[in-house]
Design a protein that fits this description.
560 residues, alpha/beta, globular, binds 1-deoxynojirimycin, 8-stranded parallel beta barrel, 19 helices
Length: 560
């Protein structure tokens, strides 16, 4: 392996940054963010150091699910700009070394999409089989299969006009597409091909298990579609043919053994990357307990994946912080620690909060959590505003509480727009996490700010490809509150130590295969620790302390 491999398999050491165009920066002053605004802030993102920008849906939409209910897969929402504005954004980003990926939401359409309008017009419509229908009234209870139990109690909805029921795993206004229909598959490929021609580098694929699900699809239609995973592999290979290095970053919130199939098993020919939902949930359990063992155990259970594939690590995203993979008592522990008020909870399974308020604004603990996330073997993904420690606005309904406008300055509307506050797409956060206290302008000139710290983490992560590529080992040590892990990629090696508890401690480390005279050089602060002749060292950790220690051998030539 050579360092140049990191340029070919770029996603293995990328830093992903997710934003919603409509809440990032409003450049034309109409209260809604736009492509021109994001383009204006590309240099901010470049300075932060991110390398892959994930744009949440920007397509024409009925806007009942924040853009995840699309009415035209080829269009752009005119409130955000034009195709031309998007291309300018993609091009400017590329110039600054940032690739752009976009949300591919093809499990369903909006019920206002012309395909569905045509499909429901009559049973004989040529678009009828674009969706999944059943004639008989569903007598089985499917309330446990709906994704949004606050709104829906069945995955089937009666269409009055034709008297049949259509499938929807999400809201009833989001009918599921029928991927067993080759015409639908052709359309999906065409949609991908279209955006790829505009210069994007791949897709964040929405709701992959549902997209591949064969629920309700008639046997006759399943012919020629025996294994949905072959279809996912076909999409990946199509992407490869069109771009060479495009990626599919999938949303697959399933247990690890299931996720492995979505990577394409040993062949690794399906999703390029997947978010590590299981790891994230156990990380929160560990934070709540101040005990690193749930996370350590989970990392130990992570399946081995094809070397070209990658896990995406994250703390928060645009949805609720789902805790659905934890046991009931474990989930309750996280609720008690980080969201005891029922108004902070959602669907009985998650929290509609951002990280810093969950940690009571404790700067040291917040930094430790980000340091830990960036040090996990994989590719880190940030949600806009995390880098400055934004909070949520619980006055905004449901999952949207974390999708408030980006806070650029202490000025009116947090500098997001010049429009009157009443015209904003969503209200800004008020209180201690509001723009007067948390904003980019203040933090960018402050070396001690969270923004400066996250930028440092990104720099060090990028300089340490062993974090993205390595085999890793959890190091034995006596403190339950501490996670120490050793990442090695040939002669590149880093040991990360995180203290999830508030108690200070000294951590004895024992590394194997170290050369005599090697040192542990601290990458986040100054200082170095000598390793003894058999690879031992003691590392002092503050409460909620974090350390990234590069293993430097006497002849080593790496920058440390
Ligand atoms: C998952 C997305 O993350 C969520 O925001 C959306 O509502 C559903 N898929 C439906 O598209």
């Amino acid at each position: 392996m050579r360092i140049s491999d990191t340029a070919d398999l770029w996603w293995k050491t990328a830093v992903v940054y997710c934003l919603d165009v409509e809440t990032f920066l409003d450049w034309d002053g109409d209260g809604v963010g736009d492509f021109a605004g994001v383009t204006e802030r590309i240099d901010y993102l470049a300075e932060l150091g991110i390398t892959c920008l994930w744009l949440m849906p920007f397509y024409p939409t009925a806007n009942r699910d924040d853009g995840y209910d699309i009415t035209d897969f080829y269009g752009v929402d005119p409130r955000l700009g034009t195709h031309g504005d998007l291309v300018e954004l993609v091009r400017t980003a590329r110039d600054r070394g940032i690739r752009v990926i976009v949300d591919l939401v093809v499990n369903h359409t909006s019920d206002k999409h012309p395909w569905f309008k045509a499909a429901r017009a009559s049973k004989g419509s040529s678009f009828r089989d674009f969706y999944v229908w059943r004639a008989e009234k569903p007598d089985d209870d499917t309330s446990d299969q709906v994704v949004f139990p606050d709104q829906e109690d069945s995955i089937w909805e009666l269409d009055e006009r034709t008297g049949e029921y259509y499938l929807h795993r999400f809201y009833k206004h989001q009918p599921d597409l029928n991927v067993a229909n080759p015409k639908v598959r052709d359309e999906i490929a065409k949609v991908m091909g279209f955006w790829l021609e505009l210069g994007i580098s791949g897709f964040r694929v929405d709701a992959v298990p549902f997209l591949l699900g064969l629920e309700g699809i008639a046997d006759s239609q399943k012919e020629g579609f025996a294994d949905p995973h072959d279809y996912l592999a076909a999409l990946r290979s199509f992407l490869g043919r069109r771009t060479g290095d495009g990626i599919l970053l999938g949303e697959v919130n399933l247990p690890y053994r299931e996720q492995k199939k979505f990577f394409g098993g040993r062949d690794g020919d399906e999703l390029t990357m997947m978010f590590d939902f299981v790891g994230m949930q156990n990380l929160f359990l560990s934070l709540a307990r101040e005990d690193a063992r749930p996370l350590a155990r989970t990392l130990g259970r992570r399946p081995t994946i094809n070397p070209d594939a990658q896990w995406a690590s994250f703390l928060r995203n645009h949805d609720e912080l789902t805790l659905d993979k934890l046991g009931e008592d474990e989930r309750q522990e996280v609720f008690d620690a980080f969201g005891p008020d029922p108004d902070m909870q959602l669907f009985g399974r998650g929290l509609r909060r951002r990280l810093p308020p969950m940690l009571d604004g404790d700067p040291r603990r917040t930094r430790m959590a980000y340091s830990l996330m960036f040090s996990l073997p994989g590719t880190p993904a940030l949600f806009y505003g995390e880098e400055i420690g934004m909070g949520e606005n619980l006055d905004i309904e449901g999952r949207m509480a974390v999708r408030s406008p980006m806070q650029w300055s202490a000025e009116r509307n947090g500098g997001f727009t010049t429009a009157a506050p009443s015209r904003l797409r969503r209200p800004v956060v008020a209180g201690p996490f509001g723009p007067e206290h948390v904003n980019v302008a203040d933090q960018r000139t402050e070396p001690g700010s969270l923004l400066s710290f996250v930028a440092l983490l990104i720099r060090r992560y990028r300089e340490s490809p062993e974090l993205g590529w390595a085999d890793f080992t959890i190091l034995e040590q006596p403190h339950h509150g501490v996670l120490a892990h050793d990442c090695r990629w040939e002669d590149r090696r880093m040991v990360a130590v995180h203290n999830l508890s508030s108690d200070r401690c000294t951590v004895p480390l024992q590394l194997t295969d170290t050369e005599p005279g090697s040192r542990l050089v601290d990458l986040l602060q100054t200082g170095a620790t000598e390793l003894d002749a058999v690879g031992r060292a003691e590392v002092a950790m503050d409460g909620y302390g974090y350390r990234w220690l590069r293993v430097v051998s006497p002849e080593g030539r790496r920058l440390a």
